[in-house]
Amino acid sequence: MASQAASQAPEFERRSSAWGISWRRAALLAPSGIILGLFFVAGVFADLISAYDPEKIVLVDRLIPPVMEEGGSWDHPLGTDNLGRDILARVIYGARVSLLVVGICIPASALIGVLTGLIAGWRLGWADRILMRLVDIQLALPAILFALLIAVVFGSSLRNVILIIIIFTWSSYARLVRADVLSLREQEFVTAAQASGASDKRVLFRHILPNILNTIVIMATLEVPSVILIEAALSFLNIGVAPGTASWGAMISEGRNFMTIAWWPIWMPGIAILLVSLTGNLMGDWLRDTLDPRLRNVR
Amino acid sequence: MGANGLWTIFLSRLLQGMLVVFLVVSIVFLVSRAARDPIEYLTTDETTEEEKELLREQFGLSGPLGKQYVDFLVNAVQLDLGNSFISDLPAMEEVLNRASKTLQLGVAALLFSLVLGIPLGIIAALRRASPSDWFARLLAVLGQATPNFWLGLMLIFFFAVQLDWFPTGGSGGIEHIVLPTITLGLLTSAAAMRLTRSRMIDVMNTDFVRTARAKGLRESTIIWRHALRHAILPVATILGIQVGRLIAGTVIVEQVFAWPGIGRLMLHTITVGDFPVMIAGILVISSAIVVANILVDLSYPIIDPRIRAGGQ
Predict the structure, then answer these.
(1) Among B137, B180, B219, B247, which is least packed, fewest CB within 10 Å?
(2) Which residue of B has its CA nearest to A133?
(3) Chain B contacts of A247, Cβ < 8 Å?
(4) Nearest residue in chain A measured CA to CA from B188
């Protein structure tokens, strides 16, 4: 958001010389980068960092408050949940679940979406018609209900969550790429490449794709927070990860029943989701303004 | 493009929409039958084969899948989706009974998001870099990043448990709808605000606004009569997309606030395997999304006369 002022009201902004980033923006980006870095490190090294097993139930230690509350201690800095599991450990392992979902879903759906978008925009005809109908179907069928159906029919597991998210996100890449191909295919450099005898494959991958790579990168970055939110929502409804697994959404769902006597079991994972999704959005916005300001109104 | 052109567009969109609803319902029907025989949800281990046969006959679950599918389609066209496995009432009736509750919540959330989002977007655009602009943008960033189920729980915690201003859930009087409306509408209001703001900024810099100023029109006339009309067109597009999001959102929000609408019904029926009600619900929901999108498409020529005249 801050971007819009930056790109349109340069008179208000002092630009730092080296990076071309305004100071105000840098003040937002630096903490965002640190938070996303922490999220990444927590996810990758969860088993090394965490002092506790996130699924270990210790009933005598249940609902210990976090360290800043009376009765809390540094043994459990963020407190424990209703089954005595360490919340910090669960938040760290929850980062691993989110990171895994992001790490698989985004590349997979980007790959599928970009390929179909390229083919549909280039070939047009039936390929295009099928793609557009698939997009319509997907828009008319709420992901949550379909996810629920899949969870009931095939069981709930991380693998199914990942598949569902891919099914429901690839088409946004496809639509974007298709639209870009439609306008690029009329350009002279494409005609020139074709006239010089380049094959369809060569035109698409060597001439058109490099021109839309920025768009794809921006789209993928902005998808990170939304993929994290979808996973959290599915786990909150108990149709995400398997029961007991430390996932931010599942933690909130469990903590909900004790909300009136203990605030921390739902606050801690909630803050984790909020921070990661907030900083992901800020980074995405910055990338968009830097790489391609004309995409400002896409979302 | 005259009135005839509008009708042609409307009819072709309607046909496409019907095709989409047909495909959605077919996918859900086939997926739901693919992995498990629905009879499993109706019976226990002690049910005899004869009893199973009777149940199959009663609920249209006998014969090969292809035949069941064709029978299902023939009945579905007449809006007969069979009876609920649980209550034995017509499935469509069960769903429509709940539809009004979801419609109330959805309309309230949509109004909330427009009433909050559009004026905030306009103010933010006209007073760039002012405190109100910062507030609007903060709201937009937070609205986009907050998971709605968590927001709902927080609202319950502060406004229902601590302050006791509103009930924690259920439905009844007007006080029951306040917290769910805010929860459901915040994301949409963030989207509406962002879009109104950036469009308004663009429009205020165009030549025709400069001309209007040069003519000596009052600033308020320029904003309300000239600029807003242009700024609001893409908001209509976003609304088309948001209707789908709102409906998906109601599933979660209804669950958080125990709001007795379609979303909660769907969660329940899918979990217990009440397939006729589930498919009726999917039919109603996907039709609603398709109809909303058609209405949005048709609203363009009304908002923007250039489209009516055939220009782009």
Answers:
(1) B219
(2) B20
(3) none
(4) A299
Structure tokens at A127: 């390929």
State whether B16 and A136 contact (CB < 8 Å).
yes
Q: Which residues pair with B83 in a beta bridge?
A: B90
How does DSSP classify residue A18? T
The pLDDT, as a whole number, for residue B175 is 77
Count of CB atoms situated within 10 Å of the CB of A5: 20
Q: Quick one: CA dihedral A145, A216, A112, A177, positive or negative?
A: positive
Per-residue pLDDT tens for B98-113?
888 888 888 888 889 8
Kindly determine whether residue B32 and residue A149, on different chains, have CB atoms separated by under 8 Å.
yes
Structure tokens, B43 = 């019976």
* Six token digits for residue B263: 């979303």
What was the ipTM of the complex prediction?
Answer: 0.79
Closest Cα to residue B94, out of B244, B276, B221, B229? Answer: B276
- Using a CB-CB distance cutoff of 8 angstroms, which residues of chain A are in contact with residue B195? 297
pLDDT in tens, B132-170: 888 888 888 888 888 888 998 888 888 877 787 887 777
Eight-state DSSP code of residue A65 = P
| CA angle in degrees (0–180, nearest 5) for A264-A270-A275 | 125
Instruction: Write the residue in B35, B145, B251 that is nearest to A154 by C-beta.
Output: B35
3-state secondary structure of B90: strand
Query: How many CA atoms are closer than 13 Å to the CA of A172, on its beta-carbon side?
Result: 22
The Cα–Cα gap between B288 and B291 comes to 5
Contact residues on chain B for A39, CB-CB shorter than 8 A: none
Contact A140, B286 (CB under 8 A): yes
User: d(Cα A223, Cα A239) in Å, to the nearest integer?
Assistant: 21
Angstrom distance (rounded) from CA A121 to CA A111: 15
Entry pTM = 0.82
pLDDT at A18 over 50: no
Separation between Cα atoms, residue A175 and residue B309, nearest integer Å: 28
Return d(Cα B133, Cα B184) in angstroms, integer.
Answer: 23
Q: String of b and e for A162-195 (b: at least 16 CB within 10 Å)? A: bbbbbbbbbbbbbbbbbebbeebbeeeebeebee
- Select from A1, A12, A152 the Cβ nearest to the Cβ of B141: A1
Q: Quote the pLDDT of residue A5.
A: 40
Are B266 and A141 within 8 A, CB to CB? no
Q: Which H or E element spans position A165?
A: helix A158-184
CA Rg, chain B, in Å? 24
Look at B157 and A229 and tell me if their CB atoms are within 8 Å.
no
pLDDT in the model for residue A245: 81
Q: Which residues in chain A have Cβ-Cβ distances shorter than 8 Å to B267?
A: 148, 237
Contact B85, B42 (CB under 8 A): yes
Measured CA to CA, the distance from residue A190 to residue B198 in angstroms comes to 33
Residues of chain B contacting residue A264, judged by C-beta atoms under 8 Å apart: none
Identity of the residue numbered A146: F
Helix or strand or coil: residue B129?
Answer: coil
The reply to whether residue A259 touches residue B149, judged by beta carbons under 8 angstroms, is no
pLDDT at A105: 93
Mean pLDDT for the stretch of residues B42-60:
71
